[in-house]
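[Automated response] Your request has been received and processed.

Submitted sequence:
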Amino acid sequence: MASTQDVLRAMFEHHIWATVTLIDALEGLPAERLDAEIPGTYGSMVATLTHLVEADSRYLARLYSSSLPLPEDHPPRPPADVRTEIHGNAARWAQALGQLDAGTLDATIGARDDYPRVTHAEGLLLLQAIHHGNDHRTQIWSTLGALGLEVPELDGWEFWLTQGA
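Generated structure:
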């Protein structure tokens, strides 16, 4: 029987796997395809991917620091560069989940003009990371489909089948 911690780890393993699988699909595309965007999405596929992974890094940083500068988006980066960052994030997520399980992770989000201070914010940050990743992966997935390009399977079933979970 799976524990709550096993389920949470599987969610983050899927989060990383789905992002890497999407990177695999994007890496061979020419720049003009990577720069494509459709209405209702964050932006171009490469800008959305960059934003997704950089935000993931910010959520991880917020687990350990309550006073971070306001987030800023950087120029789009090639999928290979983003791949390096998401693999680094995988190790950091595993560490954070280990600390959560041990009861030693206690995140606080500092107050801002538009947002209150949140103590014991680890659940909020974990939830936001999963939701944010799914949201933006779906936007890239939709853009690939709208362009008539191959769309990778990113759902939980495919993860379970391919990863032998």
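Summary generated for your ticket: The radius of gyration is 16 Å. Helices lie at 4-27, 31-34, 45-62, 79-102, 122-146, 156-163.
If you did not submit this request, please reply to this message.
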